Amino acid sequence: MRPLSVLLCAVTITCFCYCDSSEDFAVTQTPSELTVKEGGSVSVACCWDKNISGVKVKWFKDDQHTGHWSDEHLHTEVQGNCSVLSIKNIRNNETGLYICEVTRDVPALDTRRGEGTAVKLQAENEDVVPVSLQDELIIYVIRCIPFITLLLVVCFLNRGTKKSPQPKPCSQNVPNAEEEERELEEGEEQTGEERERDGGNEQVQEETGLEERNEQMRRERELEEEDKVKGQKRKRGERQRKEQEE
After folding, report:
1. Beta-bridge partner residues of 79
2. How far is it, in rounded angstroms, from Cα 119 to Cα 104?
3. Which of 29, 41, 61 is nearest to 121 (CA)?
4. Which has the closest alpha carbon to 104: 27, 44, 14?
5. Which long-range contacts link 108-117 to residues 24+ away (Cβ below 8 Å)?
6. Which residues in the chain land under pLDDT 50?
7. What residues have CB less than 8 Å from 76, skipping those under 6 apart?
8. Are the beta carbons of 92 and 119 closer than 8 angstroms?
9. Could you give the CA distance from residue 59 to residue 85 in angstroms, rounded to a whole number?
10. pLDDT digits (tens, 9 = 90+) for 39-63
11. Is the separation of the CB atoms in 88 and 42 below 8 Å?
12. Element at 186 (helix H, strand E)
């Protein structure tokens, strides 16, 4: 019974390890394209997303294994879950499509390939802006950004200052209760004085109107008396004329 129990434990552990490590893994290769001058150096990275024991990595150029190349131009190095291919002093015959191949033996044979990296040589007559000039332009633009921002802020603040009216002090906007009572009392006194003045003016106007009416009536009586005297004189004169004619 004891050997049977040990066998069952071994089978269980084996199945567990197989199930845990049988998951598929993915391979990523970067960059997808490189352009370099003749005599320059390039590096290509091939990484896998799972920890694999006993992993094997091969590099192919145009579907041909690169193992026959000398270490003077080609060198591979495993760094964690990545394999880095370095090519130094590159020549025209060393350009092409480089692809990495990752192989896992345990628990089952499984092979994955990268998408490939195209290595090209830069043409001699090709107009390429030097990297140093690009860096200088970027640095110059970055240095100018704060000054441009400050100028825009100053212009915006000046425009807002011209348009917005100056606020009045809070002490002027909120009157005191005593001042309000004093203003109300002064307003009532002024209203009473105005009413008294208006009443006096009306009384004076009434008295003036009575005097004018009395004066007018007196003049009318005088005119009536004058008319009567003139009528009597006229009648007397007519009577004397008639007597003289007779």
Report:
1. 82
2. 27
3. 41
4. 27
5. 108/22, 110/24, 110/25, 112/25, 112/26, 112/27, 112/48, 113/27, 114/27, 114/28, 114/29, 114/46, 115/29, 115/32, 116/29, 116/32, 117/29, 117/30, 117/31, 117/32, 117/33, 117/34, 117/44
6. 1, 6, 9, 11, 13-22, 128-131, 170-174
7. 57, 59, 83, 84, 85, 86
8. no
9. 8
10. 889 999 999 988 888 889 999 998 8
11. no
12. helix 177-245
Structure tokens at 6: 């040990």
Q: In sequence order, what E strands does 96-190 have?
A: 96-104, 110-113, 117-121
Amino acid at the residue 74: L
The whole-angstrom separation of Cα 107 and Cα 114 is 22
Instruction: Please give the sequence-ordered ranges of beta strands (E in DSSP) within the chain, or none if there are none.
Output: 27-30, 33-36, 42-48, 56-61, 64-65, 74-79, 82-87, 96-104, 110-113, 117-121
User: Residue 68's beta-bridge partner residues?
Assistant: none
Tokens of 38: 């003749």
Cα distance between residue 224 and residue 219, in whole Å: 9
Dig out the tokens for 145 from the structure.
């950004």
Peptide bond just before 107 cis, omega within 30 deg: yes
Secondary structure of residue 120 in the 3-state scheme: strand
User: What token pair was written down for 58?
Assistant: 């091969």
139 CA to centre of own chain: 25
Query: Which residues face 223 on adjacent strands?
Result: none
The pTM of the whole model exceeds 0.70: no
Angle at 81 between CA 75 and CA 85, to 5 degrees: 20
The amino acid occupying position 28 is T
